[in-house]
Amino acid sequence: MAPRLALIAVPAAVAVAVVSAIPTAIIANPWFTRMTPVYLDQYIYWVGTSILAGMLLATYLTGPKSIAGGAGGAGGGLLGYLAIGCPVCNKLIVALLGVSGAMDYFAPAQPFLGALGMVLLALALGYRIRSLRRADCAVRLPA
Questions:
Q1: Of 90, 91, 77, 92, the residue nearest 15 (C-alpha)
Q2: Is residue 141 part of a domain?
Q3: Per residue in 95-115, pLDDT tens?
Q4: What CA–CA distance (Å, rounded) separates 19 from 88?
Q5: What's the average model confidence in pLDDT over 56-76?
Q6: Quick check: is 142 in a domain?
Q7: CA dist., res. 90 & res. 105, Å (int)
């Protein structure tokens, strides 16, 4: 199952990277404009989140459709997305904190959000892999 998992994880990671980079304008595009520069840590969280999310998605696409790790994966993906976005472009953050609040409070918190998101994704992936291994090794007793 490992080669098949890798064949699916790579395109899944690329898809997550593109889907998260277009609206955050990490990849320049004609649809979205970024108001603040992209910093090195945002690139790191973008790549790390994409890889972990791609690997987690691959376990769902190749294995049983149980929900093991689903909440951690969703939460980690959301935190990773918030970590790479422009604080001034995030309308929800600006509505809650204002532009100066977004720059003074949310922008400094973004690296912590990215790190926490990657931890959640890694834990969800580990939990998912462990549950898949247990399912493969389950001993069925005769009825």
A1: 77
A2: no
A3: 999 999 999 999 999 999 999
A4: 20
A5: 82
A6: no
A7: 13
Using a 10 angstrom Cβ sphere, with 0-12 exposed, 13-18 middle and 19 or more buried, the burial of residue 37 is exposed
DSSP per-residue codes, the chain? -HHHHHHHHHHHHHHHHHHHHHHHTSS--SS---SSPPPHHHHHHHHHHHHHHHHHHHHHHHS----TTHHHHHHHHHHHHHHHS-TTT-HHHHHHHHHHHIIIIIHHHHHHHHHHHHHHHHHHHHHHHHHHHHHHTPPPPP-
What's the full length of the chain, in residues? 143
Domains in the chain: how many in total? 1
Q: By the 8 A CB rule, do 131 and 66 touch? A: yes
Report residue 134 CA to chain centroid gap.
Answer: 25
- Print the domain residue range for 92: 2-136
Write down the pTM of the prediction.
Answer: 0.87
CA–CA separation, 38 vs 36, rounded Å? 7
Place of tokens 């108001």: 35
Residue 116 forms part of a structural domain? yes
Residue 23 lies in a domain: yes
